[in-house]
Amino acid sequence: MRAFEGYRCGNCEREVPAGSPVGECPACAGPLLAVYDLGLLRRRSSREELLAPRPGGIWRFRELLPALGREVTLGEGNTPLIPAPRLCAAAGGAEVLIKNEEHNPTGSFKARGIAAAVSRLLDLGARGAVMPSAGNAGIALAAYGAAAGLPVRIYVPSVTPEGFAEECAAYGAAVTVVPGILPDAARRIDEDGRGEGEHLLSTFREPCRVEGKKTMAFELEAQLEAPADWIVFPTGGGTGVVALWKAYEELEELGWLAGPIPRIAAVQAAGCAPVVRAVERGADRMEPWPDPDTIAPGIRVPGSRADRQILRAIYRTGGTAVAVDDGEIVEAARS
Questions:
Q1: What is the average pLDDT across 188-210?
Q2: Among 39, 47, 228, 304, which one is least packed by beta carbons within 10 Å?
Q3: How far is CA 179 from CA 1, 79, 142, 154, 157, in A?
């Protein structure tokens, strides 16, 4: 039983039909978020059914995913929770678990969102896909595009560490390296233009990327014996933060949460921390971060098209945002 109804703009709340090819709000260019008839789902299904151990990767949660004709998968999802005893000790004895998204087929949580996004493109009859990427999202799109027979172009900023562009190309994607950082790569796509039937999969310009990533929250609900107090999430463009918040709000409205919604802590690099600065000011919008500088390319994102939704997720869950310097990042990776 599918409860999917279509999409709604997160800013102006304009409704967009399920079969529309647009990736952002046609009225205000805001982020589109999938909408479900949760009342219908509550009457016809249950928490136990949704969270039951079923095959299908992210698609095991199809009751709360868009209804698509072909569900592309490479076996993403179902990633383990790893105990972290040294982090537990550092946290004063609180239990700390790591959701190891490296177990996804392309090595990061980006596989979840791209699996859903590529599935939507096939439904729309797309002839290709293009995105700017500093690494993991591009690799995921290259891999899932290859699996779906969909031509892919990736624009990679020159500051991206060695190996990412080469891996995208190994999957068959056409790769363009652009001098600068991620926004420079995005501008180059606009300058070069798109081919006929080619869709843009930039962050928050493709609504199913959020939907695929929200399956992390469903898995956490199925894996944890007791509700989580906090979810600490490394944050660049913020898709993961919005996805987690959206999933937990849907579960709460359904009455299927085992406890309160976990508080979300967005973690950013001190050299690129627009979310942290907005939270410190109590703002509801983010200002672009000038001259972002960090060794962590995946979170070197100076702003987000969904800044309102990211901040709303943090405020409504009673969460926070924290900046760490590059030395702390290196030390944490070693420990």
A1: 97
A2: 39
A3: 48, 35, 21, 14, 6
